[in-house]
Each structure stands twice: as structure tokens, then as C-alpha cells.
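S1.2 Input.
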Amino acid sequence: MDRSESGSFSVESSVDYKKAVKEVTKYGFPSVCGMILRRLVDVINYLIIGQLGNPDFTAGAGLGILTMNITTFSIGVGLSGGVETLSSQAFGRKKNYLAGCYYNRAQVILTAIFIPQAIALYYSEDILIFLKQPPASSHYAGIYSSIMIPGLWMLCQTELLRRFLTTQGVLYIVVNSQILSCILHPLWVYFFVYYFDYSLEGVAYATNMTYLINFIIPILYITKNKDLLKKDSWHCINKDSFSGLLEYLEIGVPSMIMTALEVWGFEVICLMAGLLGSAQLGASVVLFNIDAFLFMIPFGFSLSFSSLVGNSLGARKHERASIYINLSVIFAIGLSAIVCFIYWEFKTQIAYMFTSDKELADLMISIFPILMLYECGNYIQCITTGIIKAMGYQKYATIVCLLSFWIVSFPVGYLLAFVWGYGLQGIFFGLPCGITVHAAIFLLIIYLTDLEELSKNIVRKIESHARGVKNYNEFNEFSASWEDSEKALSEKS
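S1.3 Output.
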């Protein structure tokens, strides 16, 4: 077998559950590692900034990260979701060159949209002051955000590359570069913060160096070893990278909105908690950081399931896709059960790991049972989001996100906290209410879908997109013609 094909997900006509579990864990594990390593850089930064001894640095960095998440990261990662759908389906259909075109189009779009994002970050201090944020915190947030501009572009491009490689089962390239960058990150921090005495700015410079390593090493390695990827999938940006931008945006924009609604929603919850007092705000920030770290596990598996199901549907293997869908639910339930057990058994120890204040620790401990309810639905919605993306149902998912977070969770949390007097517990209790609706609707959409008919529609769409590629004939050696595909579809029907 060609090395370029052996590195991808298998394409057998049928896959039993034992093989499917091995495949999911084989490709899910590096995805999870990659997500955790990305969060580890943030943890190191928080620890260093906290040791600098200036509360305004901590507040400014937090406000800067909030600004970057809202204006840049959530949008960039959301737009990258189009690759999960389109490239995975194209690889399943053996349209390797077209899959590479989708990746290149995403690069072009992310770079174009980053221009106004960079301008907003550069003037973030003025924007934050206009929004009535504390002047000192806004000042340091502006400094931190403006220095991070090049790093954020590289971070978004790295996340896009991760998704593209995941769609063909090549994951360790990015993970290995992350391992190296995480080892070097404390060295960069020491170099810029303590040796050059750049203080808060030094943390930003160090993070830029880390993001540069994460981005440049995989690019150079792949360019040098193209045979690691599927044949013809890795190519330079050309005319075909600009010819189908609207095709990509049809999937990318709903994916962006879906991600942004969720990310922005958690920032709203922190703002609501801040209205209750500093202890409530502190507890919510710590709990969300714990949740975000553990959330990297289902999120990594979500990327894996998205690629597996997308490959299967693109290859007209709807029975195999059904097996992966069933496994995704089993994985979600199992992972949530493990996390709930950890929360229940070690809630006191976890609380005192992050604070020595008894009032704050007791408040966090009282929230953990509610957080357990939330995680049950959260892990299901996270992993099934990958299935929804593989199906190309981002438009439906956007409506579900709007309903669950902004129409159920936040109003319920507000009423419980501020009208009926349940405080922080009330805010957090709104989360399981909304996420249960979210997970239930996703499961209904997935299991009510006719996978065979969906697979036919995906094949028609991919073939239609392929005909619009100028170099289609040159790179179509594995593919059936449009006419043959239509004939096969009609005969199958």
C-alpha cells in the first residue's frame, strides 16, 4: 500500500466495533494530548503572571485573554471547522487535491479576516476603556493583546493545520512540535521575563515564540516529507484556493457562529458572577478553568470522530459511519462518568488546590454537584458536535447553540441567581438546563438522519465542487467521473 494512503483512516466497507474502538483510540489519543498541551501553555502563563506581584498584571492579562478569545480565537477556530467537514468528506471520496484546496481556502480566509482582528487588538486598550473597564487593567490588556497579534495568527493557523491533518489520520506531527514547545516555553519565559526583565510583556513574547514553534515545525516537516500525507493533498496556494471561497464559507461561517456563541456565553457567565461579588467571580473562574482543562479530553475525541464519520460518509460507507456514531455516544457517557466520579470524590482536594480561603473553597465545593450534572450533557454535546460537523449540519447546530445557551441557560441562571436569590449556584444550575436541551437535540438530529441518503448528497456535493477545480482532471486519478457517480447513485437508489 502507498505510504500516503496507509497514514489515513481505514476505508473497509465494514468495521466491527472492536476495530472501531482501536481506530478511535489510536487517533483520539494524540488529539487529546494536543489539546491538553495547548492548555498547558496557558496554565504556565497564569502561574508566572501571578508570581510577578502586580494585581494589575493579573487582571490585565485576564482581560486581554478574554478580548483575544472573543475577537480572534473563537472566530478563527470556528472558521477552521469547515475543514473538519469538507476535507474529511473529500478524503473519503478520494478527492485528495480538493481536500487540500479546502485547507488552502481556509488559510486565505483566516488571514483575510485577521486583518480587522489585528486592528481591534491593537486598539483594545481604547476599546476596553470605552466599555468602562478599569483603566489600569485595560492598559495592560492592551499591551498584552497587541504583542500577541503575530502569535494569535500562528495559533489559528496551527489549529487549522491540526484539523486538516486529523481528517487524514496524521496527528503526531503537530503533537510532537507541541511537546517540544512546551518543554521550551518555561525557558522562553525565564529569558524574556527575568533575564531581559520584560515583565508582563515578556510572557507575551515567550508565548509568541511557543506559537511560532508549533506552527513552523509542522509546516517545514510536512513540506520535507510530503509522502506522510495523502497524495496530492499538500500543495501551494494557487488559483483553486480562491475559486471556491463561498463553498467553504457556507460551512465555515455557521461553524464560526456556533463556536463564538459558546465561547462568548461563558464570558457572559463570568460577568454575571462578578455582579455577585469577588468570591463568586473567583470561584467561577477557577471552576471554568478546571472544566476547560478536562474538556480537552472529549474535544480531542470529537475531532477524531468528526474525521472518521466524515471519511465514512464521503466514501459511501454509511454502515461504518453508524458504528462510529454509536461509539461516540458510548465514549461521551463513559468519559463524563469518570469526570463526575473525580468531581465527587476529590471536590474538597481540588478546591483547596486552587485556594487556601475557606469561604471560596466552600463555595466551589457547593458548585461541584451542579457541575457534575452539567458535564453529563456537556460531554455528549461536545463529542456529538464532531458528528454534526462531519454531516455538514453546522447551520442546525448554530440554532441549537443559540437556543440552549442564550435562551435556556442564561435566562434560567439569571432568574435563579438574581430574582430567586440562589446566587452562584443559580447561575451554574442554568448550565445543565441548557446543555441537556443541547445534547438531546443533537442526538435527535443524528439518529433521525438517513445516513445512506446523506452520504449520497455528500458525494454529489463533493463531485460538484471537484468539477469547479481547474486542476481537477490532473489530480482525479483515484476518482470516478461525475457521470459515473450519478449513475452509481441512481442504480443504488
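S1.4 Remarks. DSSP finds 18 helices and no strands in the chain.
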